[in-house]
Structure to design on (570 residues):
């Protein structure tokens, strides 16, 4: 079996399995929380559009960008290998005629697809509720897909990083929490090039409005202290982070032996 | 015969803990029993043999190929792990079909193979139930089913009979023997002596990471000639019989059985005792109902070897 075919089969198995996991239901519900926020904001706005909708959208993006995709990637990413070890199901995978990297890549792809679906549904509903007054404006759809693209890239980069952590550490989730909600939260506000050592910096650099360009609206929560990288470089950086950590995760998973508690 | 599974000076350490110590052995086609108490190193050997772990020293090969990071060999290997671990949110059928995807079978063949394997372990009726709802015995059987579903030439079964009721055990033993008759190689581990005895006479005794003995039961007995043998004789007049043997230098100890008709003779020279028994009973006119050797059971051999 080629590695491509093996990745496809692993993807198929874990996408199906992932859909019915209790964790997926919980996170899908959490992803709908902004919908409630959006409905509340619409009631408060009472027909007003413009800046208020923009501010609300930005708050929405803070939730998705700095909380939801991080927590999703943390739990799904670390579980790519760690849950197999903890649940002692790794034996079933390791004794199949499948190259080990295919297991990491297939499971990563399956979980990334699941997370993207959850994010797309949550963001889609809440975004269009908030911006219902501009439904005829093509720019709205462009903005939506840009937001979604940014979140998709965030899912890939964060999940690859956490998958890497999961392959090397037994309790990866603790370090993952420190990284996701400690390092990432603090370092992005550092001046100069230091903020480039966070994933969220590149994600924010891709948002559809720029500081000082006249496009920033509302309180620009997401742009606070941002010294953006160019969009092309930001995309490259995010894809590079994804590829590098996935390659590391595959190499470690291939070389390391995993001992279960028994 | 050619060895299917070979280990040469195989050692495995878990930090400072010894898992397996300088094990060299060859396993041929047929059923080989791996016997030893919990923590003896049986599972460690099986994990090394199935490429789940990497040896610290030595090698383990299947059909001449090292098992670590050699996924291609798993086409011909079926492994049944000891751990009671599953993807609980899957049905039995989905579990098997999901794992069968990795062999390149068509969708139709995956379905047929999964159904056939579940039928063999008598889970066809429950194939659409979630594994989390299965009883312990059913879980054990579905675990066995995933090991055989791709029709492997080599089966490595880690404690496959644990958790099964007596009837379930009997059925699985019959099934495993059936695979042997098809010319497959089967390595089965257990810490329960009668289970291994019921499966095979070819046994590897393992304890504290070392192979204590290997061969069939008589061979193992030959290895332990120094081990005192027990001979139980049930007769019409056990006291008269005991009187004839009491002065015999071959006898180490003699006790009367609880039924009052049996004497149990402990000796290092079993053949001498048997040689003398016939003339003694003829001369004394004692009727002998039964002669048996209680420690012909593997249990006595194992206990002796472990205690040695």
């Amino acid at each position: 079996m080629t590695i491509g075919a093996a990745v496809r089969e692993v993807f198929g198995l874990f996408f199906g399995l992932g859909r019915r996991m209790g964790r997926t239901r919980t996170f899908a519900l959490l992803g709908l929380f902004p919908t409630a926020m959006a409905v509340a904001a619409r009631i408060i706005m009472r027909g007003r559009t413009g800046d208020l909708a923009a501010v609300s959208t930005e708050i929405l993006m803070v939730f998705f960008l700095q909380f939801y995709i991080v927590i999703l990637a943390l739990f799904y990413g670390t579980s790519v290998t760690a849950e197999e070890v903890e649940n002692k199901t790794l034996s079933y995978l390791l004794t199949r005629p499948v190259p080990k990297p295919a297991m990491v890549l297939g499971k990563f792809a399956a979980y990334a697809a699941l997370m993207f679906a959850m994010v797309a549904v949550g963001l889609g509903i809440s975004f269009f509720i908030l911006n219902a007054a501009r439904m005829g404006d093509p720019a709205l759809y462009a903005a939506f897909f840009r937001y979604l693209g940014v979140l998709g890239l965030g899912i890939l980069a964060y999940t690859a990083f956490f998958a890497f952590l999961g392959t090397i550490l037994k309790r990866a989730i603790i370090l993952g929490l420190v990284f996701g909600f400690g390092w990432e939260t603090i370092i992005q506000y550092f001046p100069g090039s230091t903020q480039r050592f966070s994933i969220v910096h590149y994600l924010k650099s891709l948002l559809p409005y720029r500081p000082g360009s006249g496009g920033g609206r509302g309180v620009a929560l997401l742009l606070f202290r941002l010294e953006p990288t160019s969009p092309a470089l930001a995309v490259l950086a995010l894809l590079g982070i994804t590829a590098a950590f996935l390659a590391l995760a595959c190499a470690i998973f291939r070389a390391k032996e995993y001992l279960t508690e028994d | 015969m050619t060895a299917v599974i070979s280990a040469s000076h195989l050692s495995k350490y878990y930090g400072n803990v010894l898992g397996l110590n300088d094990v060299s052995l060859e396993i041929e086609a047929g059923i080989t029993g791996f016997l030893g108490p919990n923590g003896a190193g049986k599972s460690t050997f099986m994990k090394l043999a199935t490429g789940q772990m990497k040896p610290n020293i030595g090698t383990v090969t299947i059909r001449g190929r090292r098992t670590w990071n050699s996924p291609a060999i798993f086409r011909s290997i079926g492994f049944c792990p000891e751990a009671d671990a599953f993807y609980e949110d899957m049905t039995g059928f989905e579990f098997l079909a999901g794992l069968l995807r990795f062999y390149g079978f068509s969708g139709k063949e995956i379905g047929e193979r999964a159904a056939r394997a579940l039928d063999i372990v008598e889970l066809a009726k429950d194939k659409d139930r979630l594994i989390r709802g299965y009883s312990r015995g059913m879980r054990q059987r579905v675990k066995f089913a995933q090991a055989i579903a791709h029709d492997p030439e080599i089966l490595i079964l880690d404690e496959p009979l644990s958790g099964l009721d007596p009837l379930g055990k009997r059925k699985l033993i019959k099934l495993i023997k059936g695979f042997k008759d098809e010319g497959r190689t089967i390595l089965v581990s257990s810490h329960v002596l009668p289970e291994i005895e019921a499966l095979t006479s070819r046994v590897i005794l393992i304890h504290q990471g070392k192979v204590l003995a290997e061969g069939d039961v008589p061979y193992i007995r030959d290895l332990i000639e120094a081990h005192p043998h027990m001979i139980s004789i049930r007769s019409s007049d056990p006291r008269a019989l005991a009187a004839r043997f009491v002065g015999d230098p071959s006898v180490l100890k003699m006790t009367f059985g609880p039924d009052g008709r049996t004497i149990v003779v402990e000796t290092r020279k079993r053949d001498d005792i048997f040689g003398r028994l016939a003339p003694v009973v003829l001369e004394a006119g004692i009727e002998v109902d039964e002669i048996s050797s209680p420690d012909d059971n593997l249990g006595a051999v194992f206990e002796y070897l472990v205690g040695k």
Remarks:
- The longest strand of chain B covers residues 17-27.
- Chain B touches chain A through 32 residues (CB under 8 Å).
- The two ends of chain B are 32 Å apart (CA to CA).
- Residues 166-181 of chain B form the longest helix (16 residues).
